[in-house]
Design a protein that fits this description.
The complex is a heterodimer of chains A (210) and B (208). Chain A is an alpha/beta fold and 210 residues long. Chain A has 4 helices and 10 strands, in the order βαββββββαααβββ. In chain A, the strands form 2 sheets. Chain A has a 7-stranded mixed beta sheet with strand order 3-2-1-4-7-6-8, sandwiched between helices. In chain A, strands 5-10-9 form a 3-stranded mixed beta sheet. Classes of the chains: A alpha/beta (210), B alpha/beta (208).
Chain lengths: 210, 208
C-alpha cells in the first residue's frame, strides 16, 4: 500500500433510491475492508435497511431533498459529519485488488475516462472526459462545490444530466488519478486495472450462496 | 401585440443574442437558449393558458375578500405566467416574480408593476407572509413539502393560492411529486378548495 493511501480516514458510499441495494453496499464494504481495515466506513442514504452494521449510516439531509446522483454532492457539505481524508466509491465498482498505488489526495481528485479520449464532444453537449465513480478529497475543503450547487440547483439539474458535467462545466477545480486505476467493463482497458467499473450498465452481484 | 407574440419576441431575441455572443465568448451558456425554448414550448403555453383561464374566474369580489394589490409568483422562471396574468388584472397590481436563478431576471420580461426578484422563493415569501393576496406556484414538484405546507399555514387566511404540481416522478429536480390529484389536494390542507383539476401531467389547486 502506498504511504499516501494509508492516510485515508473515511470510505464513503452513497445509496439513494432503488437502483442499488444494501447488498451492493455490503459487497463493496467487504472488498474495501480487506484492503483498508482501519478506516471508518460511511453510507449516506435515505434507507439503511440491510446495510452491514460496520458501515456508519449518515441519513440524507432533510433539506434540500435531492434525487439520484445529485446526493453525491452533499458529501462536500460542511455539514457532512466526517473529518480527514475521504475516499468515495460508486456502488457499481468491483474492487479486484488493492488500488492504493493510484489513490492520492490532491484537492478534488476523480477518474479520467480513458475511453472517451477520441470522442468528438460539441460544446453544447456538455459531455466530459472525467468520471466521479471514485473521488478523493479532504473533508471540509470542497464545501464551495456544495454551496455553489445550491445557489442555482434547479437550473443545474435541468442543464446537466449528472454531477460530472456539473463539475467540469461549472469550472470546479479538480485533478485526476493516475491512468490505470479502473477498467470500464463497457470499454475494456488494455491494462490490468484493480477496479472494474460498470458505469451505466446494470451491475448484478455475483451469487454467493446456493 | 398578444402575450404570446410578446413572449416569443423576447425569447427569440435572447436566443439569437446567446448564439451571437457564443461565437466570441467561450463562457456563454449555450444551454440557456434551450432552457428559454423549453419555457415557451407548446406544453408550457397550454399550461399557462389553463392556469390563467381558470384562475381569473376566482379573482373577483366573491372570492377575494380584499383588493388584489400584490401577487407573488414563486419560482417564476422567465416570468411568462405574469405576462399572461397582467392582461386580466388592474395595472396597479404588482406582480412579484421570484426565482433563485439570477439570469431569469435578465432574460425575462419586466414591465411597470411586474418586478423580478432573484432570491429563493420560499425565503423571500417567509420574510413577508402578509404581503400577498394571491400566491402562484407552478412547480410545487421542485419544492420541499414542508415548505409548501408552511406557505399555506402562514399566509393570510383569505389569500388565494394557485399551486401546481405533477406526477412526473422521473425528473431529478422533481423532489415532491404526487400519484394523484387527490393526494396533491390533501397535502395542501387548504381551508377551502375553489378548484382542483388535472391537465396533461400537471395538477392544479386553487383555494384559500
Amino acid at each position: 500500500m502506498s504511504t499516501e493511501a494509508r492516510l485515508v480516514n473515511n470510505i464513503i458510499f452513497v445509496k439513494h433510491g432503488d437502483k442499488y441495494s444494501a447488498d451492493h453496499v455490503n459487497r463493496l464494504f467487504e472488498q474495501c475492508f480487506w484492503i483498508w481495515p482501519d478506516v471508518k466506513y460511511f453510507c449516506y442514504t435515505e434507507d439503511k435497511k440491510g446495510i452491514n452494521a460496520s458501515v456508519n449510516i449518515i441519513p440524507c439531509f432533510k433539506k434540500p431533498t435531492l434525487k439520484y446522483w445529485w446526493n453525491k454532492l452533499a458529501m462536500f457539505s460542511e455539514d457532512f459529519p466526517v473529518h480527514g481524508k475521504c475516499l468515495y466509491f460508486d456502488l457499481d465498482m468491483d474492487i479486484k485488488r488493492d488500488p492504493s498505488e493510484f489513490i492520492t489526495w490532491n484537492g478534488l481528485t476523480i477518474i479520467k475516462d480513458y475511453w472517451k479520449d477520441d470522442l468528438y464532444m460539441a460544446p453544447h453537449a456538455y459531455d466530459v472526459h472525467i468520471n466521479s465513480s471514485i473521488i478523493t478529497w479532504t473533508a471540509g475543503q470542497q464545501s464551495f462545490v456544495w454551496d455553489y450547487f445550491l445557489s442555482n440547483k434547479d437550473y443545474f439539474m435541468r442543464k446537466y444530466p449528472g454531477i460530472d458535467r456539473f463539475l467540469v462545466h461549472e469550472k470546479v477545480p479538480f485533478n485526476t488519478f493516475e491512468h490505470g486505476i479502473v477498467n470500464s467493463v463497457a470499454n475494456p482497458a488494455k491494462w490490468d486495472a484493480p477496479i472494474d467499473m460498470y458505469n451505466g450498465l446494470k451491475y448484478d452481484l455475483q451469487r454467493t450462496d446456493i | 401585440m398578444t402575450c404570446k407574440e410578446l413572449i416569443y419576441k423576447n425569447a427569440f431575441h435572447h436566443i439569437e443574442k446567446i448564439y451571437h455572443d457564443s461565437k466570441y465568448d467561450p463562457n456563454i451558456d449555450l444551454y440557456r437558449s434551450c432552457d428559454i425554448l423549453n419555457s415557451i414550448s407548446e406544453e408550457q403555453f397550454a399550461n399557462y393558458d389553463w392556469l390563467i383561464q381558470t384562475l381569473i374566474q376566482y379573482l373577483n369580489d366573491k372570492h377575494l375578500t380584499f383588493p388584489l394589490r400584490d401577487v407573488c409568483v414563486m419560482a417564476s422562471w422567465y416570468g411568462y405566467c405574469g405576462v399572461f396574468l397582467r392582461k386580466h388584472i388592474e395595472a396597479n397590481v404588482k406582480i412579484w416574480n421570484i426565482d433563485s436563478d439570477p439570469l431569469c431576471m435578465q432574460y425575462g420580461i419586466q414591465s411597470e408593476n411586474t418586478i423580478a426578484i432573484t432570491e429563493d422563493a420560499v425565503d423571500y415569501y417567509f420574510d413577508r407572509t402578509d404581503a400577498f393576496q394571491l400566491i402562484i406556484n407552478m412547480s410545487c414538484e421542485n419544492m420541499e413539502q414542508d415548505d409548501i405546507t408552511m406557505i399555506v399555514q402562514s399566509k393570510p387566511i383569505d389569500s388565494i393560492v394557485c399551486f401546481q404540481s405533477s406526477n412526473n416522478h422521473e425528473k431529478a429536480e422533481n423532489i415532491n411529486t404526487y400519484d394523484s390529484l387527490e393526494e396533491f389536494v390533501d397535502s395542501l390542507k387548504l381551508a377551502h378548495v375553489f378548484y382542483q383539476g388535472e391537465f396533461n401531467s400537471k395538477y392544479m389547486v386553487i383555494g384559500i
